[in-house]
Amino acid sequence: MIRALIEKDLKLYFRNPFFALITLLSLVLVIALYFLLPAHAEDSLSTALVLPADTSAEMSAFLSEAFESELLDSQDALMKAVEAGDYSAGMVLTDAIIDDLANGRPVDVPVYTTPGMTPELKQALTSLYTAGLNNVNYVSAEEQLHINDHVIVLGPDLLDINEALALRDRMLPMLIMMMFAIELMGLANLISEEVTRGTVKALLVTPLRVRQFFSAKMLMGVGLAFLEVMLLAAATGKLFVSPAIVVSALLIGSLLMTGVAFFIAAFATDFMSVMAWSVLFLLLLMLPGFNVMFPTMASAWIKVIPSYYLVEPLHLALNYGAGWAQVGSNLLILFASGLAFLLLGSALLRRRFQ
């Protein structure tokens, strides 16, 4: 019975001209968009500098030029700007450091960088600051100071490859979420139509049980969503980066989207209401994807959105080669969230047609 229901649902899904066309077209367009986006990151340095409050305007201008850095007001502002990605790196010169420079003593300088900086850029950064510090050595223009640069990474420093993260790779979790969105709307509309038209009640008059009905819908939703995002991951060549983690994340993510589709179908009464509810949920579910693309949106509250625990493992595994230790807890939370939505949506649907 479950197999027969799945076959029926697949036929109904692809008989709908809107969802049949948008599903196939979206898959092609998303894959094309990925390959049209820049394949390489631009290796460039933008740096910031914080000076003591009593530094003269002339000295501030001199130091800013020596380090090729923009001046910021405080260490806290610098750390937030670097962590947000506004600058590649930043350095804070205290009174003690400047005093050591003025007297030709060795200095110990902490340098703050963004996560994922390549070894080449770190070396360039060290050379830049070393040259700058020696340029402000007042004791002798020929005497080179002993400088110890402490590179402090603000955020997870998981990058162990020699290439910076390209825009298309940063955007990939968002593209995967876009494909999930199509399936979410399609499944929610399919279930809503069956409930509204009374098809469910007619089915339940037969020996079919409610549990079998929900099982068929769940398997169809999870299977279809999983198949499409797997095709996307395979077409981009990212499926084989961390295959076990990527497959697990996509499968559990399919469960979450199916659960959300159940929840939407419990309230939607027609196609337009399905679209309205879907847009509301999709705006929330896609926020973590924007968070990866634009780090300046980073905020602690984003972690209350269940899709964060899908986007984050995908981002870390696909782009940084993270292992189970880094993503395991996120996947557990994602599974719990998907199961909760599935159970809640099923309970609400049951009340609606019984």
Automatic annotation (TrEMBL):
Q: What would be an example GO MF term here?
A: ABC-type transporter activity
Provide the leader sequence positions: none
Positions of transmembrane segments: 18-37, 172-192, 212-233, 245-268, 274-294, 331-349
> What domain of life is recorded for the organism?
Bacteria
The protein's topology relative to the membrane is: Multi-pass membrane protein
Q: Where is the ABC-2 type transporter transmembrane domain?
A: 21-345
A GO cellular component annotation here is: plasma membrane
Keyword flag Zinc: no
Name of the protein: ABC-2 type transport system permease protein
